Each structure stands twice: as C-alpha cells, then as structure tokens.
Amino acid sequence: MAEPILKWAGGKRQLLDELYARFPATYGRYHEPFVGGGAVFFDLEPSAATVNDANPRLVNFYERVRDDPEALIERLESFDDPDADPDPDLPHAEETARGRDVESYYYQQRARFNRRPYEGEFDPLEEAALLLYLNRTCYNGLYRENADGGFNVPVGRYANPDWVQRDRIRRASDALADATVRNGDFDYVLDAAEPGDLVYFDPPYEPMSATASFNEYSAEGFDREDQRRLLDVAGALDEAGVWVVLSNSGVMNEPYAEAGFRVDREGATRAINSDAGNRDEVDEIVATNVPPSERRAAGQRDLAEF
C-alpha cells in the first residue's frame, strides 16, 4: 500500500474509515480535486484517477514522483543534514536574496527554494527535491508561505530526519502511474467526471466552532465564494449521476443538508498545529449523495470497478 510522502495540513488518514463507509460499493473513475497530501488517494490506489491541486509546486512534486522516482531519490540523497554548514558550491551559502545571514544548510536550501522561480532555468526535479527536503526537516512538517509567496517555516528538531523517503516515493510512483495530475480549479470535474464516477472533495478549510455560521466562514486562499461554488459543483455532479463524498468544516453542515446531501458530523484531531497542546478534536462533517444501500460493506478495502 502506498502512503503519503509529504506531511500536509488537513490530511485525512484519521478519517479514512469514516470516509470509506460512505463510498459507493462500485464506481468508475476516481477524482480528487483537492489532493493535498494524498492520504485518501494513496490509500485507495485507484487504477484510474484524476488528482488536482491549486498549488503548482505540489503538482510538480507529484509529477516528478510519478515520472522520475529514481532521479528524485538520487537528488534527495545528495542533500546534507539540516544543521550542517551551508554548501559553498550552491547559491545562498552566506545570505538570502534579501541579505539575511544563512545560519545552516537548511536555511540555504530554504533560500534556494524561495528563489528558484525567479533565478535561472527552472529545474522541476530540483524543485520537487527541495520541497520534500524542507517538508521533512522543517518545524512540525508545516507548509506555510508568507504574503510574498515565500516558504517561511523554521528548521525542525529531529534526531534522524528521513528526507529521502525511498520506499514511499517508489510506492507512490506506482500509484500515480495511471493517474492524470492537474494544476487548476476544482471545477474541472464537471467535464472530467462521468455518471458512476466518484469524486472526493477535501477543500481547504479552518475548523470552526459549532456556533459559527456559514456567512462568517472564510479560510485563507479559499473564501466564502469558493465554498458556494463548491456547493454548486457538488450539486451539479449529483444531478449528473456522479457519486460525491465531501469533508468540510462543521459550519458547512446546514448548506449541504439543505442541498439534499446526507451529512454526518465527525470528530477529527488536528494533525499539524504549532501548539502541541492544541491538537484537540475539531468539528468536521462528511457529506455524500451515496445512499446507505449503495455503500461499501464495513471493512471493505478493495473497490470493484464497472
């Protein structure tokens, strides 16, 4: 079984059983418009799929995992310990593009990652390797950008960080072999999904209190209008005979219930939080148009296809 390679906020590994309990027993092609860390996709390993994300660096990473796994592993093996001295043969060995001192090898690679889109010829393999290296050595596995789009997470403290991830890359490459990887808007599924296909939506959202209203809801990079568009897309897929499963903040309970979806509340623990004491259970929903009579049997892991 493949596993996620990257640590990614909002990952759904802890909700897999609850999600699968609402999947149809059989379906055609699988579509995941907000793939993120890919917890569901890699666990399912569907034989025919589309995956999409709005983050171009994440999409490039999955393309390299799919198409060049051994070259990616070799590039990762060339990286040094995050606390080592900067490499004098690489850019930003002494200071960042903004003139700040570079304290260690980690901060040199962070500076390189942040300047790659603006300096020299773009190397998609190096971009992918830097993303995984930083993800596996930064503080708490966060992916966070500042207002200028720069990755700004400090170095983490790990005894033996594994940034190469050989086995996970190879298994993930196999899982992605027949998948279409996209970098665009989630509404592509209106054209890509056919009747009998399954679409799983896991949009960006911030857990909200039980008393918060939809009109108060917003998440960085994915606002109220995006949530409304997503609700409309889910409704259009439902009318077209496409199976839909969606996870979201608890504040979206009422809108999906009013649209005719079956909605249940589930508890989810924050997997990534800067405050370890604040990784508590949050309010989350799972909505679906799959009736109980069409759902998978309990404990079923392999899905038959049409």
UniProtKB/TrEMBL annotation:
Residues 78-98 are annotated as: Disordered. Its EC number is 2.1.1.72. It catalyses: a 2'-deoxyadenosine in DNA + S-adenosyl-L-methionine = an N(6)-methyl-2'-deoxyadenosine in DNA + S-adenosyl-L-homocysteine + H(+). GO terms for molecular function: S-adenosyl-L-methionine binding; sequence-specific DNA binding; site-specific DNA-methyltransferase (adenine-specific) activity. GO terms for biological process: DNA restriction-modification system; methylation; mismatch repair. Residues 79-88 have a biased composition (Acidic residues). Residues 89-98 have a biased composition (Basic and acidic residues). Keywords: Methyltransferase, S-adenosyl-L-methionine, Transferase. The keyword Methyltransferase applies. Belongs to the N(4)/N(6)-methyltransferase family. PANTHER family: DNA ADENINE METHYLASE. This is site-specific DNA-methyltransferase (adenine-specific). It comes from Halorubrum kocurii JCM 14978.
